[in-house]
Design a protein that fits this description.
By secondary structure, the protein is an all-alpha fold. It contains eight helices and no strands. Fluoride channel required for the rapid expulsion of cytoplasmic fluoride.
Length: about 160
């Protein structure tokens, strides 16, 4: 862990903690919803992981599209309006939100497990459509997140 100071490790850990909790809760909500009517919603089983990966990719794109700023510069901006003081994210905030939160919120391992499971069950169309959806939409979402931030921040981004 060279280059990481204790505050970076704490930020990374906090982001990962909340990302994992958020992923677990979203999965639980999806599973509970499917359980309300398995006949109608059973085909959605596993697809919530794609939703998490796509939304996490959007968020990651947005986070890294924001300018990286020096925390000392924020304190020099004279304004009572938070939106005027916002200039971007500190490197530590990007570490916490990008690597920590998004890294544990998205889940390539569960995605991979789902694909292999469906392939072993002979559900090849489902497996390959899941691979295509997850990859194409996640990359598009990351790009869209970057585009949205750049559009909102304009010259700052």
């Amino acid at each position: 862990m060279s280059g990481l100071v204790p505050a970076d490790i704490a930020a990374l850990g906090a982001g990962a903690f909340f990302g994992a909790l958020s992923r677990y809760q979203a999965g639980k909500i999806a599973s509970d919803f499917i359980a309300t009517n398995p006949k109608a919603y059973g085909k959605l089983t596993g697809w919530h992981t794609a939703g998490l990966n796509i939304s996490g990719s959007f968020l990651l794109g947005a986070i890294y599209a924001m300018p990286t700023i020096d925390v000392d510069k924020i304190n020099q901006i004279q304004s009572n309006k938070p939106w005027e003081r916002f200039q971007g994210l500190s490197p530590r905030a990007k570490l916490m939100l990008g690597v920590g939160f998004c890294g544990s919120f998205t889940t390539f391992s569960t995605f991979s497990y789902d694909v292999v499971t469906w392939m072993n069950e002979g559900r090849l169309v489902r497996a390959f459509s899941y691979v295509a959806t997850n990859n194409i939409c996640s990359v598009a979402a990351a790009g869209f997140g970057m585009m949205v931030v750049k559009k909102i921040l304009g010259a700052k981004a």
